[in-house]
Amino acid sequence: METSNILEMRGITKTFPGVKALSDVTLEVARGEVHAICGENGAGKSTLMKVLSGVYPHGTYEGDIVFEGETLSLSSIRDSEAKGIVIIHQELALSPYLSIAENIFLNNEVKGRFGLIDWHQANKRAQALLARVGLREKPTTKIMDIGVGKQQLVEIAKALSKEVKLLILDEPTAALNDEDSAHLLDLILALKEQGITSIIISHKLNEIKKIADAVTVIRDGKTIETMPKAEITEDRIIKDMVGRDLEHRYPDHTPHIGEEILRVEDWTAHHPQDPNRVVVDNVNLSVRRGEIVGIAGLMGAGRTEFAMSLFGRSYGSRISGKVFKAGKEIRTRTVAEAIDNGLAYATEDRKVYGLNLIEDIKRNVSMASLKKLERLGLVNDGQEYQVANEYRKSMNIKAPSVLAKTGKLSGGNQQKVVLSKWIYSDPDVLILDEPTRGIDVGAKYEIYTIINRLAAEGKGIIVISSELPELLGICDRIYALSEGRITGEVPIEEASPEMLLKYMTMESPR
Amino acid sequence: MTNTELRPGGGPTGSEEIGPPVNRFTQAIAHVLADLGKNGIFLALILVIVLFQVLTNGILLRPQNVSNLIVQNGYILILAIGMVLVIVAGHIDLSVGSVAAFIGAVSGVFAVKMGLDWWLAVILSLAIGALVGAWQGFWIAYVGIPAFIVTLAGMLIFRGLALVVLGNSNIGSFPTEYRALGNGFLELAPIELGPRSSIDIITLVIGLIAIAALVVQQIRTRRGRVSYGQDVEPVGWSLIKLALIGIGMGLFTYALATFKGIPITLIILAVLVLIYGTVANRSVFGRHIYAIGGNRHAAELSGIKTRSVDFWLFVNMGVLAALAGLVFTARLNLAGPKAGDGFELEAISAAFIGGAAVQGGVGTVGGAIIGGLIIGVLNNGMSIMGIGIEWQQAVKGLVLLLAVAFDVFNKRRSGVR
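ok -> structure tokens follow
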């Protein structure tokens, strides 16, 4: 059966324990087109692409994938690559210490006599591939010696070496500067001329408008619609991306806003490895007592980098700027100093940065405040137990006792332990980075209630979140961040998802 | 996607669990079994002791041999105490054997060649040990070179310096007080019990005081827990454990009292165990070590000064390695070029057999001591049986592997990590 569609994904449903990530998703991609997929963080785009590329093998999802008229049952990435489907992930999968040619032919080596690698041939073929993607580098150059824009091109050359028919690019320009982005988009169009179909996942609506022949919008694991080129408008995409019921997912919050508690002036931070790259660019913001302030921004906008550079310079290099607490300048050069000055920061990745998973709840709660439990250098065990137990009750941490290891708790309960730790440190300002990521709906509501309670106690709260509805549901004021700069500041009464998305995708006039 | 982490209904909870009907008896049994599982290493030590007591026809537990066991392994146990803390923080120290040899040689210069007072020689030697530790700690904590590399270099550097200090000869015949560190006994009031046998009253008294202190401490801990509303273990089980440990200590005391009294090495060890047990369990510094080993990022973001903790850990290790060097040198009455050879491996083995985790974050001072004693009993028992050094090595290697494999298996079964 010949069809004009190179790919049809029909009725794809993918369930993780407790969560339906994809529900009856349909995606049709015509041969030779550039097809864009849009959706908020967590909408299910990446999951869909992982199903398509065999990361989630056949049988772990429902529905059919028809590629070039053939129903696929993939069991690994190798299978999908054999069919000509190649995915390039957002985090590039190149080995920095190997050369360009070595990376291109990794696990696909050019064999010569006796099964040994024919480096001469490999470098020659790599040279030809580099010419095709317009990269002027020697095949023997190491990946670590070229910039991220060129690395992206090496990934594409690698895909071309596998005889790619369908190229999937996940946020390809997120980490690129304007020039590199433009070059990459031109390359995608050039590949289209050569008959290669592309699927591009992107947040950058202007880019999509520029190169896409069709756009499919996914929201909450469902396909909303696919629009042909003629109908693509940024407004329509945004509307499709955010339109959902915002009622009753957030507890009522009546703000009692007092005087200013924290002000950050001209905060700038550079990339830790590349001190010339500005990651946080002259950020100014303030928080008042009892106020919940949101920071909205796309992935890579510099939200976490801002928070971590502020919190004891835990990120970045060449950091500059001033911090004022209640009008008085404070220093936050080390984490201990930041904590002493009344700051707290709950990280976005609680497993990697927030918790000691092999320790119990008690020791995690006390970790940032052992000073309070100490006399003559010794920790008062009993008091520690009592403190942790009080938090277990007041935060409703579901665990048999405070001696339970945090690694065995669910995401929501782990997050409550992290919050307990910071609340016990008695801060004036709490920065909460993605406080509800990976948490189910019921626990989210509880976390929101806790945030409201903290605000009601007169603390200043900064919430960083990728979920716009969440920010709109709980904040009193929202800053939008794009490319490390504050591009907008909106009181909640005036805020709308459309408006925020516009600020969040605003590019700098460079 | 992080969705895979989600569990329906908010995950495991205490109150919603449906289990078999619970009564006090099944609870007590469950507790005893859990406790035995946790103290598997202690049971292993008892097993090894019983095994060799049988294989050596009762020689192992003769008073003289019991005393020897402590004195022969004292320096390994001293090293194991420092090593377990280093391992908990996620590091390793390969240099302790060389440092012990170096300090032994240095102390020989102080105490023999320069003829300083023994106490001054000891203090100076320990101070140099601290400097050695500070040197290594600097590279590890502030320059960021992995401890494996720094201490591998240290292993060569300080072995070399030991030879330089010795200058191609042994330094020997130390002052009596110095030698007491490794050979001395506290025997103050021996009472004749017949020809060629006596019993030291002071040793017995000290033993009894230690047992009493243990009992009092257990009761106080229990009371403390009850007053703060913590769960406590069943009274019966507590009493049985206490009684068994008390009897064990009693027999041990008796053995020492009927030989020569309390070895000075044992006194040093007991003081170290008390201090470091408290540091590890109850001090802020100890908490920081465990926090760093469990999750370095989280520790840093909780305001813990990870570099400073790393630095002081290695300073401490340097002092303990120096002390081990002194005790060893005192025991041989000789500072020689081969001193401390392989100590690092025995100390590391002791820590791992005692339940420390390679990834860090897990391990106890008590466990390391028991691990060290297991190695000690193996060494001693096999030597008594006349087994050659080649088979001793092989058996010890196998025991290390099995102990860690058992630990890994145990953790996998209980679903930790």
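The mean pLDDT of chain A is 88.
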